[in-house]
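check this:
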Amino acid sequence: MSVTASGPSQDRADVELRVPADGAYVSVLRTTTAGLAARLDFTIDDIEDLRIAVGEASAMVLPEADPGSELQCRFWLAPAQMTVSVSVEASSPAAPDEDSFAWQVLTTLASSASVQSGDGRLGVTMTMRALDLGGDDLEAALGAGR
């Protein structure tokens, strides 16, 4: 796990969504994630992985959210790649336990993941890269290693 002071190097996200810091709104983030990933031609499996990863990231930051604050989700889009940052306002955040089930799921699903803590915020940023293999190409690639 790496802890940094800020998110991706590009400060302005392509898409930003703010909802109340309440678990009831996580489905909105997951649906938005799926829609954006579909526009980037991610596979159905990769889209579902992203949805799960965003849900896990939200579950990690929400318990630390200050009362009445917002859950912020920022998306940086690139060909075959999406970076998502999920964060909340948190006066005294505790870093997520990297041995937790949620962190293990998140780091398994995402190409990379990190935690940001500072300036009164706690966030999790993850990057997912689409696999450019499908169907017969995937079988050929797996068979080549035998």
About this structure: Helices lie at 26-39, 44-61, 101-109, 136-144.
